[in-house]
Structure formats: C-alpha cells, structure tokens
Amino acid sequence: MRAIVIVGGGAAGLQLATRLARRLGKRGHAEIVLVDRSPTHLWKPLLHEVAAGRLEPVVHHTPFALQAARHGFRYVQGNLRAVDRINRTISVAPIGTGHGEDGQIQSIGYDKLVLAVGGVTQYFGVPGAREHALTLDSVSCAEQVRDRVFTALRRSRRPMPSRTRPRERSA
Ligand SMILES: Cc1cc2nc3c(=O)[nH]c(=O)nc-3n(C[C@H](O)[C@H](O)[C@H](O)COP(=O)(O)OP(=O)(O)OC[C@H]3O[C@@H](n4cnc5c(N)ncnc54)[C@H](O)[C@@H]3O)c2cc1C
C-alpha cells in the first residue's frame, strides 16, 4: 500500500491528513501518516487570543491522536530531522530527547511526502530582536506573552483584564 507522509499538522497538514484519510485511507488505497512535534493542533489565528488571556488552548485545541483515531490516519509525534530523497525515508527524533541521547531516531518510509512545517518569525538581522522580542509562532510563545503581560500587571497592581483572569500561577 502507498504511504503518504505529511510532516506538520498545522492549518494545511491537518486538513490534508484528515481528507486523505477519509478518501484513501479508509478504502485501503493508502496509508496516511501525520508527523508533528506537538501533540495537539491549535489554529494559529487564535494565538493572539491566547496571548491576551482570553482563550485557554486546552479547551480549543485538537489532539492529533484523537483526530487520527477518528479519521483513520497514523499520527507520529516527533521532530523532523532529515529527508532522504534517494531512499524515500524521513528521520524523526522523539520529543524530549536529544539527538544521539537515549531517544531513538525513527525512520519512516514514504511514497509521497508533504512538508507542511509552516514558518517562523524572521528577524532580518535587527540587532537585539531575536534576544528580546516575543513572538507568536506557537502556543508556548503565546503563553509566554500572556504570562509576561499578566506578571507585569500584577507587579504594577493594575487590574487584570476582566474577561479572563488566569488562574493564579505560582511564579
Ligand atoms: C497570530 C496569527 C494570526 C493569524 N491570523 C490569520 C488570519 O486571520 N487569516 C489567515 O489566513 N492566516 C492567518 N495567520 C496565518 C496562518 O495561521 C498561517 O498561514 C497558517 O497557519 C500556515 O499553515 P501551515 O499549515 O503552513 O503551518 P502552521 O500552521 O504553522 O503549522 C506547522 C506545523 O508544523 C509543525 N512543525 C514545524 N516544524 C516541524 C518539525 N521539524 N517536525 C515536526 N513538526 C513540525 C508545527 O508543530 C505545526 O503544527 C495567522 C498567523 C498567526 C501567527
């Protein structure tokens, strides 16, 4: 059976994996594999709401494993490390372990490969930007913005935004 491997379960990759699984996977025409380093998908245009403290990611995210079970594709959590186009395989490192440490790099074969890993913030060489700017590239970036703003508000003793007061954090 053909293997279609999609790396990146963002707006593009998750939709593609779901549709291909419905059309080809369920009929046994192809095995659909989705690889993402995160366990969940949150639609990026919601990140500013996370940053503003108006949205809890855990309420609105889609767990990849659940989506995979519902629609019939295979989900592999890991970080894409390399693509071997000659042998048609990708190398995927497990999350939370370093290259060459205890984690085993997994090799996944493909007939068709889709790279849908999105983009990241560019700093265009602006001095200090990389070190000091906060970005909105991922849920953890958005949570960092939120926590920094709320910590600053707490320290200044100004009232928190009224719609969502985040649960008290120990920090
Ligand atoms: C705050 C914000 C607001 C936005 N608002 C809008 C809007 O209103 N309208 C609009 O059209 N667009 C908007 N966008 C842009 C839109 O979100 C992006 O164009 C879209 O998410 C791109 O989809 P994608 O699937 O290409 O990548 P992404 O959604 O970025 O997904 C990439 C996926 O790849 C995974 N990944 C990355 N690298 C690896 C790796 N090495 N190994 C494994 N997995 C990996 C990531 O975990 C992620 O799940 C907004 C973006 C942001 C940040």
Model description:
The chain has 171 residues and is an alpha/beta fold. It has one domain (1-171): FAD/NAD(P)-binding domain, CATH 3.50.50. Helix content is 32%, strand content 23%. The protein contains 6 helices and 9 strands; from the N terminus they run βαββααβαβββββαα. The protein has helices spanning 11-25, 47-51, 57-60, 64-71, 129-132, 139-156, and strands at 2-7, 30-36, 40-41, 62-63, 74-77, 79-84, 89-93, 106-109, 112-115. The protein has a 4-stranded parallel sheet with strand order 5-2-1-9. A 3-stranded antiparallel sheet has the order 6-7-8, with no helix packed on it. A two-stranded antiparallel sheet has the order 3-4. A hairpin with a 4-residue loop joins strand 6 (79-84) and strand 7 (89-93). The model has no long low-confidence stretch (mean pLDDT 89). Residues 7-13, 35-38, 44-45, 47-48, 79-80, 116-118, 136 line the site of flavin-adenine dinucleotide (FAD).
Ordered list of secondary-structure elements with their pairings:
Blueprint (H helix, E strand, L loop, with lengths): L1 E6 L3 H15 L4 E7 L3 E2 L5 H5 L5 H4 L1 E2 H8 L2 E4 L1 E6 L4 E5 L12 E4 L2 E4 L13 H4 L6 H18 L15
Parallel strand pairs: 1-2, 1-9, 2-5
Antiparallel strand pairs: 3-4, 6-7, 7-8
Helix pairs in contact: 1-4
Bound molecules: flavin-adenine dinucleotide.
The site of flavin-adenine dinucleotide has 21 residues, from α1, β2, α2 and β6.
